[in-house]
Amino acid sequence: MKKRVLVLAFDGCEDIEFVGFVDVLTRCGIECRVISAFNSEFITTKSGLQVDYDAGYAKFGYLCLDDGYDALYVPGGAIDSEFKEFMKEHSSYFNEQVADFVKGGGLVVANCIAPALLAKHHAFDFKPDYLVTCYPGGEVGNIAKEHHVAETVYDDGQILSGNGPSATVYLAELTASRLLDESATASKVLTQMGFK
C-alpha cells in the first residue's frame, strides 16, 4: 500500500522546506497531500510563490489524519503569526488529533521554526520526554532546554525534526526511510538529485 503524508502549510512557509520536502517524498513514491491552515485562494510561500492546495483545515475543522496518512509534516519559515492565529482557534482539537495520530503509529515531522512553535503550543505533550531540533535561536522562549537538541535533523521515534532549509532534503530522506522501512530508495533519490 502506498505511503501517504499530509502537509499542513501556512502562508509564509519557506519555499524549499515546503516544495523541496514534497518533491523528495514524491520521487520516493510517497503520496503527499497539502492542506492549508486557512482557506485562502493559495498558499503563498516566503518568496511569494503561490501554491495550490488540496483542502483547507478551516473547511473541515480537522486534519483528516485518520484518512490513511502515515505522517504529518509542517514546514517552517515566516509562519509565526499565522501559526499563532491557527493555534488560537484550533489548539486543543489539533493537539488531540496529533496525539491520537501518533498513538496509532503516525509520524509527526516538522522543520525550521515549526518544531519550536508546535512545542510552544503543546502539540508534543503526548510524549513528556520528547526531543526536537529547530532553527538556531528558535528554541528560545519556545522549547524548554530539556526538550531541545542542536542537530541538523533529529529522530525521536515518532517525532522527526529539522533545523531549517539546509536540513530539508535530509529530513525528507529520514521521513522516507522511516515510512518505507528501508533507506535505499531515499538515498538513491538524493544521489540522483545530486545531494550525495
Structure description:
A hairpin with a 5-residue loop joins β3 and β4 (50-51). The relative contact order is 0.17. This protein has helices at 15-27, 57-60, 80-103, 114-120, 168-180, 184-192, and strands at 4-9, 31-36, 43-44, 50-51, 55-56, 71-74, 107-111, 153-156, 159-162. The protein has a single domain (4-186), classed as Class I glutamine amidotransferase (GATase) domain (Rossmann fold, 3-Layer(aba) Sandwich), CATH 3.40.50.880. The strands form two sheets. The chain has a seven-stranded mixed beta sheet with strand order 5-2-1-6-7-9-8, sandwiched between helices. Strands 3-4 form a two-stranded antiparallel ribbon. It is globular and about 40 Å long. The model has no long low-confidence stretch (mean pLDDT 90). The protein contains six helices and nine strands. It is of the alpha/beta class and 196 residues long. The longest helix has 24 residues, at 80-103.
